[in-house]
Amino acid sequence: MARPKIALIGAGNIGGTLAHLAAVKELGDVILFDIADGLPQGKALDIAESGPSEGFDAKMSGTSDYADIAGADVCIVTAGVARKPGMSRDDLLGINLKVMKSVGAGIAEHAPNAFVICITNPLDAMVWALREFSGLPHHMVCGMAGVLDSARFRHFLAEEFGVSMRDVTAFVLGGHGDTMVPLARYSTVGGIPLPDLIDMGWTTQDKLDAIIQRTRDGGAEIVGLLKTGSAYYAPATSAIEMAEAFLKDQKRVLPCAAYVDGALGLNGMYVGVPTVIGAGGVERVIDIKMNRDEQAMFDSSVGAVKGLVDACKGIDPSLT
Ligand code: A3D
Predict the structure, then answer these.
(1) How far apart are CA 90 and CA 306, in angstroms?
(2) How far is the CA of 14 from the centre of ligand 1 (A)?
(3) How far is the CA of 71 from the centre of ligand 1 (A)?
(4) Where are the active-site residues found (predicted)?
């Protein structure tokens, strides 16, 4: 059986890390695509030359021609611009919308059967636009944000409790921005929900509130430290987790920016929700029940995403 083909659209910081991870995990052959002359070819060759030491069998190549992504099983999109200190994700909207238009056309023409994972920011609006431009089925196009935001939350919680992060589960829902919704009630340590851990004296509400805020600011914290760009190791790892769930039909329960039509009171929009990812793409959106406070936070996040989608429609009249 031929190896799966993984196309990485954008060969910058996240794209290169994705390629390295996909190779080391032997998920399939990798094609890196970028408009920057030599960048995808250079990174592909560099990673291929790590193969003999690491011991992976995967073909690595780079290109600036969409024809080379033909037949890709998975496309992970990071093409565009990342933020610098002082910028919000929303500041990237105009420029990255144009990028989504060309990427959407390239995928539609050459890899229409792929499972597409968008990472480009502002995430929820860009995944919506990419789906519109590509015309692929909604369940085959999704965005990576919830896995990363939840991983950040899990990391901070594991540090706070002094336990393995493997035993910490967490859900962060809503749009990938300042309004994201870390759900304490659905986050657990060894199955014990966070509110119970407060009652048990493991932590305090104040400390938990501070961790939730740090999770919301997680991307900005790294932008502030790096100064030249945004996070890329954890974002790439998160998207690889989603790609692996699809390629190996793992039926993983992962939060991602999925098309929601009917669940959670939403009608036809992309936003961060719990999903099941398997060989069918986003196979299910999990219709969780929220309490009044959680619903209010989620509604405000949904409102922020709708505002960005409207802004896209204002910029590009073909998006109606
Ligand atoms: P960066 O290292 O700048 O890489 C972006 C690459 O895209 C560059 O190599 C560009 O040459 C390339 N590019 C630009 N325009 C095109 C085009 N039209 N076609 C193909 N390639 C193009 O950025 P990065 O890898 O650090 O980040 C990529 C994106 O991910 C940015 O928009 C970030 O804001 C976003 N991001 C999202 C998250 C989420 O959790 C959703 C996290 C971190 C970064």
Answers:
(1) 12
(2) 7
(3) 23
(4) 176
Q: Is there a single domain that holds both residue 82 and residue 165? A: no
Cα–Cα distance, 134 to 201 (Å, whole number): 51
Q: Which atom of ligand 1 is nearest to the CA of 102?
A: 18
pTM: 0.98
C-alpha atoms less than 13 angstroms from C-alpha of 152 in its C-beta half-sphere: 27
Q: Which of 107, 129, 144 is the last residue of a domain?
A: 144
Q: Are residues 116 and 152 in the same domain?
A: no
Active site residue 176: yes
| The amino acid at 182 | P
Domain region containing 114: 5-144
82 labelled ligand-binding:
no
Which of 144, 161, 183 marks a domain boundary? 144
Question: How far is CA 50 from each of CA 19, 47, 54, 57, 126, rounded to the nearest angstrom?
Answer: 12, 5, 6, 11, 33
CA dihedral 235, 233, 113, 29 (to 10 degrees): -170
Which DSSP category does 304 fall into?
A: H
Q: Tens digits of per-residue pLDDT, 32-91?
A: 999 999 999 999 999 999 999 999 999 999 999 999 999 999 999 999 998 888 888 888
Give 280's DSSP letter.
Answer: T
User: Which residue in 64, 63, 129 sits closest to 95, CA to CA?
Assistant: 129
Give 190 Cα–ligand 1 centroid separation in angstroms. Answer: 36
